[in-house]
Each structure stands twice: as structure tokens, then as C-alpha cells.
Amino acid sequence: MTVSDIQAPQAPPAPRGEGLAVAFIFLTLALDAIGYGLIMPVMPDLLRSVTGGDLSRAALWGGLLTGGFAVMQFLFGPVIGNLSDRFGRKPVLILSLTVLSGDYIVLALAGSVWLLFAARLVTGAASSTYGTAMAYIADISTPAQKAQRFGLVGAAFGAGFVAGPAIGGLLAEYGLRAPFLAAALVSGFNALFGLVVLRESLQPERRRAFEWRRANPFGSFRHVGRLPGLGRLITIFFFYELGFAVYPVIWSYFTIARFGWTPAQVGLSLAYYGVGFALVQGALVRVSIRAMGRGRTVAFGLGASVLAFATLFWIENGAFALVLIPISALSGLVMPALRAEMSDRVSDRQQGELQGGLSSLHALGMILAPFLYTMVFAHFTGPSAPVHAPGAVFAVPALLSALSLWLLARVRTERTPA
After folding, report:
1. Is residue 92 part of a domain?
2. What is the mean pLDDT of the chain?
3. What count of Cα atoms within 13 Å lies in the side-chain half-sphere of residue 412?
4. What's residue 304's pLDDT?
5. What's the structural domain count of the chain?
6. Predicted structure pTM score
7. What range does the domain containing 251 cover?
8. What angle do CA 308, 314, 315 make, to 5 degrees?
9. Mean pLDDT of the region 321-330
């Protein structure tokens, strides 16, 4: 059996009342995505304002802020995931959102780039709960339900990014700090919402002791890497995350440099992408896995990524970039199928650890991506650029996606989860 033959197994109906709990966590994640997406369109102009530099310099500072954010997520992802295995998912999520609300207020008031940097470090640590949310979904899902629900998690984030960047771009008309204040309100409401409606998914008898040797990212990687059959899948996961990171890192700067877009236009383009991504993960994942299996679903999504990145390399028309977005959104098929396959290979007691380890891999990609992509972007857009080519940065994720396809083809035998 090859990886292309992997199919999600059938499962009995979900327990009564479970659907409401799933809806609660999806709404929580959507609100969190709104708070994050609000600030994306204003970062280039805000950094130009506080540094007094041009767009290339702002992109380099943006890379430093994003890299610092990712370092904190890399360090704290396994810690928070393991804490959720010990104390439960709900208290970890609520505490994180409360800290985020206060931190966005600090970002709104920051008058120097160094204070912005310090606040983003705190944001990175406090927002390292995506793995905990994924563990919550794994707690309440059967193997057959995981891929679909992981896809719906992505759809929830996509829905949040539909509203977040669009609102952020519009709020920028009232000042560059307005989106941060809105994010603080969204995060605070999100914490209150979860406190009232979210139920705990990990019962005391299923919890395990917290161990620092497994909670640091390197110990987490070592332990997760020993699980059978995960090696190449984890490598594909990392390559995908590193390639996909080009969008949050460079899209705002790329569209300004290539098309001359305003913050409002950048926000609307991100919202458009969010619509496509939400539709793919919310509606197409289940259909694709039923028709093609998990492996071919991953391959199809990676193929769409290669095509989209290769086209962005040379594209010069903003309208064509908008036409390309639905193809780019098909890459959303990759992660739900890949996460479901990996989740099925660990026990209930290890879901938080696995998802926390994957969150750290995501963060590691985000550590490397800002420096890699902003340096390439600055090299081809700065005053001393050998040729003005903002799209050259997309050659890197195109190569990573092609390598992922090659690795996927080399996965010879995978078990179908029971």
C-alpha cells in the first residue's frame, strides 16, 4: 500500500452534545484569527513610521518582529501543549487569551520599534496555543472525524482572516494603532466567550504528569521523532509550513512593491484568500479524502502550491494575482490530511505533546522564514538590487513544495489507522 492509498476509516456517530462543543472551539479559533489578522495590513506603514526608513528597511524590521514572535512560539509550543496534557485544555486557552488582550494594548501604545519587538515576544509566547486547540479537537474526535474537523479548524481560521485583514485595512483609515486596540477587544471577548461556553475535553483520568524533558522543543522533537512511521510526514509538514510562511511574512510588502496597493487593498486581498482557504478546508477536505485518500489529497494540495508560487514569481498584474488566489487556497488541503494521519499514530495521552511539537515545527519555520524571505525580498527590491524583482522571493517556497512532493512519493508503506 502506498501513501496515496491512505483512507480515513469509518466511525460510529459522535456522542450527543459533541457537535455543540466542536462549534464552540471553532468560534473561539475564528475570533482569535480575527484578532491576529487585524494588524497585518498596517505593519509596513507602522514600521516605516517608527523607524523612519523605506519599505525595504521596514520589511527587514518586519522580519525581525516575525522571527522573534516565532522563536517564542518555538520555545513555548511544547510547554503549553504539555501543560494542557497535565491541567486540561480549557484553562490554558483562557489564560493565553487574557494575556494577549493586554499585550495588544501595549502594542497600540508602543512608540519605538524596540517596544514593539518586546511586545511581539510576549504575543508569541501567549499565542502558542494552536496545538492545544488541535489537541482539544483530537480529544473529542474519532479517527474518521479528525481530518474533516482539522479542516474545519482551518476553515474557522480562514473565516477569521476574511474579517480580520479587511477590518484591519479599513480601521487603518482611522490611524495605524486602531487595529491593535480592536485586536485587544477581540481577544478579551474571546477569553470571556471561552470561559462561559467551552467545556473541558481532557478528563482527569486521561491526564499525565508534566515533564520538562518532554516540554522543551528539542526533547519534544526527539520524543515525537521516535514514534513509528512519522519521519517523512514530519519533514513534509515542516517544508510545507516553511513555504506557506511566505504569505504572512512578505505578502503585504510584495503587493505594495509590485502593484502599489494601499493597506485597504492588502487587507481585502487577504480577506479574499481567507474566503478561499475557508471553503477549501471547510468543504473540500472531506470530499477529497473520500475520493482520493489522504495521500493523494496531500499531493494535490502541494501541486497547487507549486503552481501558485511559480506564477507569483513572474506575475506583474494585480488583477491576475487575485485570479490566482483560488489556486493558492487549494494548498489548504495539505494540512488537515497530514495532521489526521499523524494524530492517528499517537495515544490520547500524547495528543497535546504531538500537537505542541508540531506547533514548534511551525514556529521553527516562522523563525527561518522572516529572515530568509525578507533578505531575498530586500535583495531584489532595495536601492542596490541587481534587478527589481519582488516576485523572486516565491522561488523558495516553490522549491520547498516540489521537495515535499518528492518526499511524499517516497513514502512507500503506511498503515490505515484502526
Report:
1. yes
2. 78
3. 0
4. 94
5. 1
6. 0.64
7. 24-200+211-409
8. 75
9. 90
